[in-house]
Write a structure and sequence with these properties.
ABC transporter transmembrane region fold, Rossmann fold, 6-stranded mixed beta sheet, binds adenosine-5'-triphosphate, ATP-binding
Length: 599
């Protein structure tokens, strides 16, 4: 059995009692089924006896026939009840395993580092967590549970047929090698087909997800036809693989059915001759045929089991591939919770690259203590957000160190570090939940006054109280009911609630108008009075009050000082300030470089 299937079976055995009961019920169903051919054979012989003996022993024979008939009914009832129980318990176990796997998968997605999420698209992960996981789950009820009944039925019926009459038994089982060959071929090809099908489903999910997220862009740029053709291509390919799968399955079923029917005809022909010659009773031949009929259902089912096994092998491999990953960023074995004394954040010769061989940051040095503000400015792509991502250890530095009060952040536990570092990101993502829940996301037990206080700091309180259910108002999917600036202010409020020791604002006021931004800034200055604060911005008015400003270019610090010192130095910062205060407040350092120094 492939390792993936062994693992799935292992998961089912986390419920040993349920599995044992289901197996016992399967066993009961198989035994009851196996009793039927013999009973039927006996009934035929008894009826035949009644026919040839005439009235001589009619009462006795009729009684015997009735007893056999009662046994047939009893065996049928037992088989029905046991089949129902094994089906019910099998489904129960598989649902429990599905639930466990879903939880493990979701937990793993939370554990895995940003580097992993950069590499694998969320659409692919959604497919693995839903469709592939389902493929692994259904193997338990559709593959593992019926297998015991099938093996028992096949083994016992074959043995009975061979033991009663070897030649007739061999004729009856002649279909087995052909069926095994057809099944083996089908199983191998199906595994490949299922894998490709799952990959295509991931591609479809990805396209659909991207389209829903970017529906405004698609509509604005009339991209409907292009997106439709992209989706259609993947969908047509997936359909082709589905056809391929169905064809493979039905081809194998056809081989099995034809060879089975040929064997059955052989049994009738050879057995008929024996009955005619008086060397076999009609009842024995009937029992033979009944055994073969009994095998017909399982043989059809075997094709389905092979299909379920092939699907589970490819689907399970995709699920376990994610579950087996170790997060690149994890607590060191001897990590201790962060216990900051003063709360001084220091970058010492920090180098970083997202991928090997492509350096993004080089030799970054700075220090920011409690009550101090560091401003970071630089052209787009110069590495400002990357600096912000390194502080809560979304990624680890590739050179140098980041310390808090002299302790390397790689030596402290991740939860304590991330609790200590508050990051208000560029993209103001909001959950589909109430305003209050969104603001208090980092601390769901925050008292109302803290939530309201944070909203007031972010200058969004007035707007919230004007909404139909103020703090209970639901924010639409991804916060579409709010404007860009309102979402950014919500995001600032959310960053302020937990009251972390280091606050980082990554271009988090870009969508807010200049007047409101000034008010946010003043309120934030008060709220972050005792914290180490980092402000990343293109608009210099957002960070000119900072104690220290660093100017980044291509991942390196090219200028450093406070606003007055930088103006005096007359470098790119001074040029940008000139440009922004003269005309264009949204001008960036890229514009300065493009334009050259303003006149
Ligand atoms: N997850 C990532 N994987 C690989 N490269 C990345 C990743 N994120 C950013 N980069 C690259 O790192 C460089 C710095 O990006 P970063 O987002 O830090 O710039 P930035 O200065 O914040 O830009 P902006 O002002 O536009 O926000 C860019 O060249 C970018 O393409």
């Amino acid at each position: 059995m492939p390792r993936v299937l062994q693992r799935i079976v292992g998961l089912a055995f986390h419920y040993p009692w349920l599995v044992s009961l289901a197996m016992a019920a399967s066993l009961g169903a198989a035994l009851a089924s196996l009793a039927l051919p013999r009973l039927l054979g006996r009934a035929v012989d008894q009826a035949h006896g009644l026919l040839i003996q005439g009235v001589a022993h009619a009462g006795e024979a009729r009684h015997a026939l009735l007893v056999t008939a009662a046994f047939v009914i009893g065996a049928t009832l037992v088989r029905g009840a046991m089949t129902m129980w094994s089906g019910y318990l099998g489904e129960l176990v598989s649902q429990k395993v599905g639930h466990d796997l879903r939880l493990q998968f979701f937990q793993q997605l939370q554990r895995l580092s940003f580097g992993f999420h950069d590499r694998i698209h969320s659409g692919d992960l959604v497919t693995r967590g839903m469709l592939d996981l389902e493929g692994a789950r259904v193997f338990i009820q559709g593959g593992l549970m019926p297998i015991l009944t099938l093996v028992l039925l096949l083994a016992f019926a074959s043995w009975q047929m061979l033991a009663t009459d070897l030649t007739l038994g061999l004729i009856g089982l002649a279909f087995v090698p052909f069926s095994a060959l057809a099944l083996g071929r089908m199983g191998f090809l199906l595994r490949v087909t299922w894998l490709r099908f799952q990959e295509l489903m991931a591609q479809l999910t990805l396209t659909m997800e991207e389209n829903l997220q970017g529906i405004r862009v698609v509509r604005a740029f009339a991209g409907k036809a292009f997106e439709m053709s992209k989706f259609d291509r993947a969908s047509v390919d997936a359909l082709a693989y589905s056809y391929n799968r169905i064809t493979l399955r039905f081809r194998a079923v056809a081989v099995m059915q034809v060879t089975f029917n040929a064997s059955m005809a052989g049994v009738l022909w050879y057995g008929g001759h024996k009955v005619a010659a008086g060397t076999m009773s009609v009842g024995t031949l009937t029992a033979y045929l009944a055994y073969m009929t009994l095998l017909q259902g399982p043989i059809r089912q075997i094709a389905m089991i092979f299909n379920a096994a092939a699907r589970a092998t490819s689907s399970g491999a995709r699920v376990f591939e994610v579950l087996d990953l170790e997060p690149e960023i994890a607590d060191a074995p001897d990590a201790k919770p962060l216990a900051p004394a003063k709360g001084v954040l220091r970058f010492e010769s920090v180098d970083f690259g997202y991928v090997p061989g492509k350096q993004i940051l080089t030799g970054i040095d700075f220090e920011v203590g409690p009550g101090q503000t560091l401003g970071i400015v630089g052209p787009p792509g110069s590495g400002k957000s990357t600096i912000a991502n390194l502080i809560p250890r979304f990624y680890d530095v590739t050179g140098g160190t980041i310390t808090i009060d002299g302790v390397d952040i790689r030596d402290v536990t991740l939860p304590s570090l991330r609790e200590y570092v508050g990051l208000v990101q560029q993209e103001a993502f909001l959950f589909d939940s109430s305003i209050g829940h969104n603001v208090a996301y980092a601390d769901p037990w925050a008292e109302e006054e803290r939530i309201v206080g944070a909203a007031k700091t972010a200058q969004i309180h007035e707007h919230i109280v004007g909404l139909p259910a103020d703090y209970e108002t639901r924010v639409g999917e991804r916060g579409v009911a709010l404007s860009g600036g309102q979402r950014q202010r919500m995001s600032i409020a959310r960053g302020v609630v937990p009251g972390p020791g280091v606050m980082i604002f990554d271009d988090s006021t870009a969508a807010i108008d200049a007047v409101t931004e000034r008010r946010v800034r003043d309120a934030l200055a008060e709220a972050t009075r005792t914290k180490a604060t980092i402000i990343i911005a293109h608009r210099l008015s957002s960070l000119m009050h900072a104690d220290q400003i660093i100017v980044l270019d291509d991942g390196m610090v090219v200028e450093r000082g406070n606003h007055a010192q930088l103006l005096k130095a007359g470098g790119v910062y001074a040029d940008l300030y000139e440009l922004q205060s003269r005309s264009d407040a949204s001008a960036t350092l890229e514009d300065v470089t493009l334009e050259g120094a303003p006149a």
